[in-house]
Amino acid sequence: MCCHLASGEKEKHKLRRNSDVAEILKNTRFSCRVCKNKVRQTPERILDHNSVICLGDLNYRVALSYEETRLLLEENDWNSLLEKDQLSMVREAGSVFKGWNEGKIMFAPTYKYSHNSDSYVGETANSKKKRRTPSWCDRILWRGNGIKQLAYIRKESKFSDHRPVCAVFAVEVEMKNKRPSKFIKGFLLHKHKNRIYMKTAYVPQAYETCSI
User: Fold this and answer.
1) Which residue, among 166, 104, 174, 165, has the nearest Cα to 145 in the 3D structure?
2) Concatenated DSSP letters of 75-89
3) Which ranges carry the Inositol polyphosphate-related phosphatase domain (predicted)?
4) Domain CATH code at residue 59
5) Does residue 102 belong to any structural domain of this protein?
6) H or E element: which one contains 68?
7) From CA 76, how far away is CA 79, in angstroms rounded?
8) pLDDT tens track of the chain, all 212 residues?
9) What is the rounded distance in angstroms from the CA atom of residue 110 to the CA atom of residue 140?
């Protein structure tokens, strides 16, 4: 599930993001021709699947002023910043993504950077007009059984105002019919008893390929 939610720092924009998530989960349908196949039943909705990974520019912000956020950034006080992270707060309140998981964030906010720079927009006189409160807009969440996150990091590509994030998962997949080959479509698999374990990487906004 890859999505780009509504942007903006105001309360109304957060509510719009919540609405976007609810609409995506409610209205996304997979092909009925495939879903009603008598031989192989395929889930019709996103939440009907055993395991789901959501990634992208979810656009949730840090609910502090730019100045307050900058002070905490200078102290590398991620915990205080994350306490004001909108996505963490709405998940805790059960507003959206109830029952979803996210790995521990141990990297700096991924938005908003000056182009081809390590500086957030607003740190120079020329960029103050376009500044935004530094936030973890780019996120990866998951739900379901048989899925374990092995890594959650950000990458340092500088050709966007975002820094991409990358997660590595081990996913347990039960194979009922065909015996899999060692490599399938670029995914590294290994078999244990009657189950298959898969390792792969997910990169929001396709900024770059993350090797495993």
Assistant:
1) 174
2) TT-HHHHHHTBHHHH
3) 5-177
4) 3.60.10.10
5) yes
6) helix 66-74
7) 9
8) 999 999 999 999 999 999 999 999 999 988 766 555 555 677 889 999 889 999 999 999 999 999 999 999 999 999 999 999 999 999 999 999 999 999 999 999 999 998 888 989 977 656 567 889 999 999 999 999 889 999 999 999 998 999 999 999 998 887 766 555 444 434 444 444 445 444 444 444 433 333 33
9) 13
Q: Do the strands 2-4 and 51-57 form a parallel or antiparallel pair, or are they unpaired?
A: parallel
In a domain, 212, yes or no: no
HSE of 198, CA atoms in CB hemisphere, 13 A = 19
Specify whether the CB–CB gap between 151 and 168 falls below 8 A. Answer: yes
Omega of the bond leading into 112 within 30 degrees of 0 (cis): yes
Domain count, the chain: 1
On whether the CB atoms of residues 92 and 98 are closer than 8 A, the answer is no
Phi-psi group of 111: left, alpha or beta (phi > 0 → left; psi -120 to 50 → alpha; rest → beta): beta
CA angle 144-140-186, nearest 5°? 80
**3-state class (DSSP) for residue 158:** coil
Concatenating the DSSP letter of every residue in 92-145 gives HHTSSSTT-B-PPP-S---B-BPTTSSSBTTSSGGGGGG----B--EEEEEEES
Could you list the residue range(s) of the whole structural domain that residue 72 is in? Answer: 2-206
| Domain annotation covers residue 44 | yes
Alpha-carbon 134 to chain mean position: 17
